[in-house]
From TrEMBL:
It comes from Nocardia aurantia. The keyword Kinase applies. Its EC number is 2.7.1.49. It holds the Pfam family Phos_pyr_kin. The lineage of its organism: Bacteria, Bacillati, Actinomycetota, Actinomycetes, Mycobacteriales. The keyword Cytoplasm does not apply. Residues 20-269 form the Pyridoxamine kinase/Phosphomethylpyrimidine kinase domain. GO terms for cellular component: cytosol. It catalyses: 4-amino-2-methyl-5-(phosphooxymethyl)pyrimidine + ATP = 4-amino-2-methyl-5-(diphosphooxymethyl)pyrimidine + ADP; 4-amino-5-hydroxymethyl-2-methylpyrimidine + ATP = 4-amino-2-methyl-5-(phosphooxymethyl)pyrimidine + ADP + H(+). Coiled coil: none annotated. Pathway: Cofactor biosynthesis; thiamine diphosphate biosynthesis; 4-amino-2-methyl-5-diphosphomethylpyrimidine from 5-amino-1-(5-phospho-D-ribosyl)imidazole: step 3/3. Keywords: ATP-binding, Kinase, Nucleotide-binding, Thiamine biosynthesis, Transferase. It comes from the Bacteria. One of its GO terms (molecular function) is phosphomethylpyrimidine kinase activity. This is Hydroxymethylpyrimidine/phosphomethylpyrimidine kinase.
Amino acid sequence: LPLTPDGQTPVRVLTIAGTDSGGGAGIQADSRTMALLGVHACVAVAAVTVQNTVGVSGFHEIPPETVAGQVRSVVSDIGIGAAKTGMLASTAIIEAVAGVCRELGIGQAGHVPLVVDPVAASMHGDPLLHAEALDALRHTLIPLATVITPNLDEVRLLTGIEVTDDISARDAAVALHALGPRWAIVKGGHLRTSDFSTDLLYDGEHFHELSASRIETRNDHGGGDTLAAATACALAHGYEVPDAVAFAKEWTTHCLKASYDLGAGHGPVSPLW
Ligand code: PLP
């Protein structure tokens, strides 16, 4: 991404998501990604997780009006080039976020690109969303999204489609796109059928495939957040969605290679600097 000359106001991106006390995923991954890419990170906290590298043992939800208030406060003063949502935990928070996005012209309600990472569970199975909140994701937030970035578990929860190969990935992309985002991505990083991690993008007309070598590491915590946050940074810089996702995928591959051991579980997908 282009560098901001010294002293000039950089591009700003807002993440609306959950914290990770272990510093691996969620808002910590988003803010780190943005800082490393030269973007100023604004943060609206939607939930606080009790978490380390082994797992998530609980979470506390921020009142929905406080979540929406953080977004309004940032946009009215600082201004943003893109927004990204991650863990939103409940129907009430999802509805508050969708409402404030419509009010402020974020996503397809206006001109500020919106990346919706429909976080439902960690990749190791800890729940991060109340099950009944899937409907709110489907019907209020996803229709506003410029691009959605579900992992394969989230694809199954949202569409009922189990992705096992190229054909089911295309079916899933079509079903996700029917929910109303401008672009749907089916991320193939967790599909262990080849040496490549291939993501499929669909805008209702064209499929784009993005492939990268699969990086084998146990330090895979926060990879989805990193991809979505880097996509938001590139969109804020004016990239079109396929170019933004291609950039983000390269960045995430670099971060997977630079990930490090931490605690007894899964270290973060990130370089230290
Ligand atoms: N914690 C928070 C707050 C998250 O937002 C996420 C993913 O989006 C996770 C944990 C899980 O991260 P991972 O699935 O990469 O382990």
